[in-house]
Structure formats: structure tokens, C-alpha cells
Design brief:
The chain has two helices and eight strands. It is of the alpha+beta class. About 25% of the residues have low confidence.
Length: about 160
């Protein structure tokens, strides 16, 4: 009788271990499937945005001469006189709009240590060397552009496209 009870316990233990294995495998399979679904959603998202323009960014020494094609950069050189940082973007196929901090040669006395808040709009996508890039920008300061005499603050201006 003891032997039969011992065998029954062994079978119960083995059965319990098998159920635990099945549960673990099911969890792993579900997690792997979810990761695969997320990866394919991400890939599909990238595929849908492949026609979305870039901006040629000349920020930093390594990009100063030739620029780097980017989407939603944190920092962006707009012209030889103006740059933007801490940019928060809404990026689209016809325009990209960001809010952030603006500095320039035209405000060094007031904005060198405390950048101005502003809204930047990139527009006019065109194809350059096989890559779609925004070719114009408009800049509006939060407090209005009137306090500063800068061409970059008046209307639409060309962006470097290479």
C-alpha cells in the first residue's frame, strides 16, 4: 500500500510539474507573440512614414559641413544666425511643427543664457539627392517677434537641403 501511495504521489508531482511547464511555455509563447506583433506594428509604422520628409540638420561639429538627415531632432540649426533646442515635434508629410527654445546672434545679450520660447514650422518638402527633405522654415517667438530685428523671424526662409 505504501508503494502504491508513493507512486501516486510521484505521478501527482510529475503531473503538477508538467502543468507548471505548460503554463510557463504558454506565458513565453504569448509574450513572444506580443513582441512579434509589436515589432510588425513598428515596421508597418516605419513603412507608412517612409515618404515623410527629413530635415537636414547641421547641428554639431560632425554635421556642420554636410548636415545629417533627421526626423524630429532635439536640436536644429535653422540658419547661420539661428538655432533651436529642446524641440517637441508634430511631424507630418507636408509640414513639421515644433515648440522649443530659440537662440540666435540677434539676441545674444538676452537669450544666450536663457533661450526664448518659440514655434518652428518646417514646410515645402522637395526631393534632393533622392531623399525628401523640408526646404523652408518659419519661426514665431512666444512673446512676438517684434522685439528683435532678425530676418529669420520675418516670414518664410530657406533651410539647407544638403
Amino acid at each position: 500500500m505504501k508503494r502504491t501511495t508513493s507512486i501516486a504521489r510521484s505521478h501527482k508531482s510529475a503531473f503538477g510539474a508538467a502543468l507548471a511547464c505548460v503554463a510557463v511555455l504558454g506565458t513565453v509563447a504569448t509574450a513572444t507573440g506580443a513582441q512579434a506583433a509589436t515589432a510588425s506594428e513598428h515596421t508597418a509604422s516605419v513603412a507608412r512614414t517612409s515618404s515623410t520628409p527629413y530635415v537636414m540638420n547641421h547641428y554639431g561639429e560632425e554635421n556642420a559641413d554636410h548636415g545629417k538627415a533627421e526626423r524630429s531632432p532635439e536640436k536644429l540649426v535653422l540658419s547661420e544666425f539661428t538655432s533651436a533646442s529642446d524641440l517637441n515635434w508634430k511631424w507630418g508629410t507636408q509640414k513639421a511643427v515644433a515648440t522649443g527654445k530659440i537662440t540666435g546672434n540677434w539676441c545674444l545679450e538676452t537669450c544666450q543664457d536663457k533661450p526664448l520660447k518659440g514655434t518652428l514650422t518646417l514646410s515645402d518638402p522637395k526631393t534632393v539627392n533622392g531623399k525628401k527633405v523640408f526646404s523652408s522654415f518659419t519661426l514665431k517667438l512666444a512673446g512676438g517677434n517684434g522685439a528683435y530685428e532678425s530676418e529669420d523671424l520675418q516670414g518664410k526662409h530657406p533651410l539647407a537641403t544638403s
